[in-house]
User: What shape does this take?
Amino acid sequence: MTEWGEEALARLRAAAHRGFGDADLLQGRPLGPVLQYAGDVLVAALEQGRDVRSLALACLDELNGRALPGDAELADEVAAALGVRAPTGLVPLPVDLGAVAAAMQDGCQVLDPERGDVLPAGEADGLPVPPGVLPEGRTPGAERRGRGSRGRVSGPLRGASRIRGAPAGTGSSRGCCGRSA
Assistant: This one.
């Protein structure tokens, strides 16, 4: 089995970021170290009609088994793309994951659900970005390192490295730090 070198990882990140279904990048490599990227690429590949069912099922299995923050949301999307579950209703929202990670460390900030900007709580309404509590040994954005990392956000935010879009038309009625919005 081929491991993930820097060049292959860079190509996978680019494919995930751009929504390319280039699942050939995943062939013969372990999915575990890149599970979030693999899921995004496989969802895109399935939506493009590519024959990646066996890879997508393996990814779904690993996501369900690992159960880290954001894995359940991505597993739902992979399952929906496979046609074994109803669509999630999540919509993509580009977000700078570095900004979200910093907000999780700094405290009371909000995420603008329309633009993906992380702002101080007093400057805008949005989804609260609570201080993050991660599994032991994990750091915010561990899977999505690098400049310009983008993700998708779900509201209210619960995860760290995996962030997905909220269902269209939803928002948070609670402000940051438990204050009413």
Q: What stands out?
A: The beta strands are 95-96, 109-111, 118-120, 127-129, 150-151. The longest helix spans residues 53-66. The helical segments are 6-18, 35-47, 53-66, 71-82, 97-106. Residues 89-181 form one domain.
